[in-house]
């Protein structure tokens, strides 16, 4: 007897969806090779002072603010495949350019090109993935993407630990060449991906289907972002996402490690253990979590995601009061597991909602607005962290972050009344094998 798609742990997705997902994971391996060592490479190998080298890192995120909306607009005008491939080629060029960097301004130039290219491609990837499956399966494909991205980044970081020699510039050249190669490989895969880039037939996203005409004029494929941002529901979601990234993801690599070392008494090795706990939780549990929440509301998953991140930061504050030692390490690791659990709930919920709100004419711009909100959070978050932690108010910062995330959780539950019930369900619990076969036939044509 053939199993239904809901019975297995690994979702049954169309072949071209797996092609995009695997290409994305391969490019994540390249990012894992280079990004953790970028500051070290600029300072220790190329002699760039730490202050200017930090600005090079900022150039990646700032360029991303421009790349995301441009990528979304081009996806609507040209279809998502060509802009995605172009963004990957730009990212490859930016990565390769880092090989010859000798000054901060050169590094900032190539870093900006890299950041713009990655951000340009991101809303195109989301559009491609959302149209590679039926609406009921969007939560599945975005959850799988999150898991594979973490696998790729972890594999790249592990590989870099064996390849990189701080005394040898040649080893850094090697990893940047490999990184550029992963982007180009993914660009070739994207350019050759079959499919029409149009959504399969499915449900509407709003409770009142007429609300799309009143609250969210599409503006057509050739319009700009004014019409998109007139969608009050999308705007509420993007604001919530930006806050989650400011208070959650944006603190993960900024405030958290500094606070854990200065106030929590962790050394570098113990800090790495907590990050490992986070990554392993995501990789090992994402598909289990997806199965557990299948059939449940996406908005409730989003709310629980924010709540778990809030609980993680409260746990961090508690761990800091233990004064170091094994108990503190265990508590910090618990905090990172809680944070990872929040990640596994956000992945199958919010991107799927955004793509259900969109039509084929404006899907790229909807994803562009969503990507912009994420990038903005990554920029604002560290800025807030630096001001608070630097002044010795780290504990207060994490308490405020937790309170803010709790308010986001409350706001997320209020989205229930604005989304049609059929569009607010995770997974494909009522789909059957014949439906999956139809996806293969319809999108692989």
Can you describe this structure in just a few lines?
The chain is mainly α. The protein has helices at 15-34, 38-45, 50-78, 81-97, 104-131, 138-163, 169-191, 211-215, 226-229, 232-252, 255-262, 268-293, 298-320, 326-346, 350-357, 363-390, 394-413, 433-443.
Lay out the secondary structure:
Blueprint: H1 15-34, H2 38-45, H3 50-78, H4 81-97, H5 104-131, H6 138-163, H7 169-191, H8 211-215, H9 226-229, H10 232-252, H11 255-262, H12 268-293, H13 298-320, H14 326-346, H15 350-357, H16 363-390, H17 394-413, H18 433-443
Number of E strands: 0
Number of helices: 18
SSE order in H/E notation? Answer: HHHHHHHHHHHHHHHHHH
Oligomer: single chain
Low-confidence blocks of residues: 1-6, 209-219, 429-445
Largest sheet, if any? none
Helix amount, in percent?
A: over 70%
Spatial shape: globular
Question: What average pLDDT do the residues reach?
Answer: 87
Gyration radius (Cα, Å) is 21 Å
User: CA-to-CA gap between the ends?
Assistant: 27 Å
Alpha-beta content class: mainly alpha
How large a portion of the residues is in β-strands, by DSSP E?
Answer: under 5%
